[in-house]
Amino acid sequence: MDEKPVAAPSEEEIDWGGSGAGGSKNIKVTTLLKSVHTGLPNPSDAAKCSLIKGEYLYFHYGCDGQDDRGWGCGYRTVQTLASWLCHNCSLPKNHSRPVPSLPEIQQALVTMGDKAGSFSGSREWIGTFEASLVLGYFYDVPCKLVHVRGGGAELEHVAVAELHQHFEKHGSPVMMGGDRDNASKGILGVWSGDKGNYLLVLDPHYYGCQLERTELQRRGWVAWKRVSSLDQSSFYNLCMPQTITKGTRVK
C-alpha cells in the first residue's frame, strides 16, 4: 500500500532567546502560522495573477508576547519579510540568522546611525525605508524602494505593474505603507482582470490568540483587496527585497 504524502507543517516555533517580548525571559518560544494565504480563492479565474513564491511566517501585533498595538505594524511586516528570506534564500554565511526581534530591529537602526540611541526601547514607528535598511543589515539583501503618488492612475498602473514584475522575478513578499494611509501591510500577490486590480494583503494588525488559517482568512486578516479601496489621496511606498543578487539566491 502506498503511503500518503506527509503534509507540510502549517506552523513553526520561533525561539526568541528571551529577547522577543522586550527582553522578557518569560516568553522564549512562539508558534507562528506559515503561509496563511494558502487556499484563499482568487477574485476570479480569467486574469493575470502574480504571487509570492515559497513559505513565510505570519507576524502580527503581540505575537511574541510584546504588546505593540498602535506602533509595531511596520516591525511585524519586516519580520514577515525576514522569515521569507530565512525560508527561501541561500544567504551568505555571515548573514544566516533567525528573524530579528523588535528590540534587535531597533538596535540595528541605532547601530547603523539611522536612529538616535533613544530609539531603542521606544514606540516609534518604522516604514519602508527603515525596512530596507534592516533587511540589508541582517541578511545582506538589497531592496528596491518604489514611490507611488496618490491617485487612482498611479496606484492602478504604476504599483500594479511594479508588483507583477517583482513577483514574477523575485517572488518575495513586499512591504507597503503610506502617509495618510500609514498602516503597514504585507503584499503577497497582485491580480489583474476584467474586475479591476486586486492586491493580496497580509495585515499585521491582528492581536489575540492564534487563529486557524481559515479563520484568519474569514476575518480578512489576509485577503484580496481592490486597489481602488486604498486611500486615493495617500502616497504609498513599496519595499521590494531583491533576491536575485550576487551571494543571495532563491533556494
UniProtKB/TrEMBL annotation:
Gene3D superfamilies listed in its UniProt record: 3.90.70.130
Keywords noted in UniProt: Hydrolase
Entry GO MF terms: deUFMylase activity
UFSP1/2/DUB catalytic domain: residues covered: 48-239
UniProt KW Hydrolase keyword: yes
Ranges in a coiled coil: none
Signal peptide stretch: none
UniProt region (Disordered), positions on chain: 1-20
InterPro entries in the record: Papain-like_cys_pep_sf, UFSP1/2_DUB_cat
Family: Belongs to the peptidase C78 family.
Protein name, entry field: UFM1-specific peptidase 1
